[in-house]
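Morning - nicotinamide-adenine-dinucleotide inputs below, output right after.
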Amino acid sequence: MTTTHITHWIGGQPWRRAARRHGEVYDPATGRITGRVDFADAAVVDEAVGAALGAFQQWRHTSMARRSTVLFAFRELLSARREKLADIIVSEHGKVHSDALGEIARGLEVVEYACGIPQLIKGGFTEQASTGVDVYSIRQPLGPVAVISPFNFPAMVPMWFFPIAVAAGNTVVVKPSEKDPSAANFLAALWREAGLPDGVFNVVHGDKPAVDRLLEHPDIKAVSFVGSTPVARHVYETGTRHGKRVQALGGAKNHMLVLPDADLDLAADAAVNAGFGAAGERCMAVSVLVAVDPVGDALVARIKERMAALTVGPGSAAGSEMGPLVTGIHRDKVTAYLDAGVTDGAALTVDGRKHPVEGEPGGFWLGPTLFDHVRPGMSVYDDEIFGPVLSVVRAPSFDEGLALINANPYGNGAALFTNDGGAARRFQHEVEVGMVGINVPIPVPVASYSFGGWKSSLFGDSHAYGEDGVKFFTRGKAVTQRWPDPSHGGINLGFPTHQ
Ligand code: NAD
């Protein structure tokens, strides 16, 4: 079987020199190797950063009108080609096609937000701050910036950052996950077609050496990272030590608290959707359900019923609701938690190994798994598993459920299911996470707000996209001006146009 060669995208075109190191890309639904991706060494990263630096000298001077024209063109192309991009995501990540379209839609949202850059980047103006003196503020781009992304959203996560970075006048080097690298190249080609000048958007593939070179490179001015907590911490510490602005989003253990007055059918649907969608490989997946007494038994029964009906199969098949895991190594790691949970004393209520699979035996399959009577101290509770494993913890009261969530080292998202407005208000006020859902299990904010967790789920001060994104990719300048003499622009009877 032939495999695709996937290489870097530097200065507006595919990189042509041979690489010394490579990675293998799999189709998770078959287990077969479908691609070979070049891994960048420091010299290749330097080439990409050089291209980004060269392009920055012109892009930062390009008018806002021109920049937003390119953004609008990119938006149109991305919208028109979404099916093709979804196919690429399915073939390397394994998630089902509708889910891939969903991640593209959420990325598009950020592109659309960035199309409004002339409005978003406006500064302030104070006339006559002192006699004859005006003061105003402007926001300017930083320079070449790096975006380092995880495997689980190969299109959406890079799009949390680069549309705003590019719109604001920066140039970008994206380092996607080596597990599903092709989506980033597809996006790079769309940018070129949209009219983005060469070198403004670059892609380097690879692993730790490529990331570490980006973190140390003196011409990279900011780093947006998304991935697991240990790597996020490394990226934050290394990047800031090298004088860069860094936002590093890490792992998660998202809890869903269900109160006895909740609509249990709604809560059970939400738990199954948010627990097993994308095979649990979402940073906003619900991995812990906290059932407040006495709803535990009724809720677990409803969840089991729904799990049994789930169709597990290839992401490309129309009927599949849940696809395979991303790699065989990851599937084996997740499966090991099933035995660990039993050893620790949790009740293995639904064993995903027994779930029927409508796919080739070589695929990286694991069906949905449910543990009941889970407690802190068990590895299935303490660790981010990042697979289709939902743990149910029983809590005697709202207060104890909330305390459990707040004691967790992660603080990405949390959801409350209830019909009690007072409890909901108290929850959103007291819960220590960055994103809260009230009867919404995956509260990923729309693009005009910002995405980010607290505690071990984010290192840095800025959340992704929205207002935080615009601030992250620009720096402020305040100008104090006095004009002793009147000045004018000469005679011009034409109607003013954008220049
Ligand atoms: P990962 O940390 O293994 O990899 C993320 C990126 O870092 C990849 O580009 C990878 O090549 C690079 N990398 C890996 N190890 C490195 C090292 N030692 N030094 C430098 N770079 C390294 O994460 P993943 O497995 O690709 O993605 C899953 C993780 O991402 C989960 O923990 C998930 O919760 C997290 N995630 C978080 C969010 C969020 O918004 N907080 C969103 C999506 C995913």
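Note: The chain has a mean pLDDT of 97.

O.
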